[in-house]
């Protein structure tokens, strides 16, 4: 059995609601099913993006945390 994990980023505007995101997820799943992939689940991967020290401390950027939504498929 093979597994595939793909990142998903919703395209949301200030006027769109949760139903728009649900439609985007459904469309993403349908696209993968055309190639024989079966949807298993979705989840989040939390990670830290390293900051930079800048030049002698000028322009230094702190590290930041981010969360990436992923969809998991099997074949």
Write the layout of secondary structure elements.
Layout: E1 3-8, H1 18-34, E2 38-49, E3 64-74
Antiparallel strand pairs: 1-3, 2-3
Structure report:
It is a single chain. With 75 residues, the chain is an alpha+beta fold. It has one domain. The chain contains 1 helix and 3 strands; from the N terminus they run E-H-E-E. The longest helix is centred in the middle third of the chain and has 17 residues. The termini are close together.
> How much helix, percentage-wise, in residues?
10-25%
What strand line-up does the widest sheet have?
1-3-2
User: What's the gyration radius in Å?
Assistant: 17 Å
Intertermini distance: 6 Å
**How many individual helices?**
1
**Major sheet summary line:** 3 strands, antiparallel
Spans of at least 5 consecutive residues whose pLDDT stays below 50 are: none
Shape: elongated
Percent of residues in β-strands: 35-45%
| Succession of helices and strands | EHEE
Class based on secondary structure composition and strand pairing: alpha+beta
Number of strands: 3
Q: Can you give the mean pLDDT?
A: 90
- For the record, the count of structural domains works out to 1
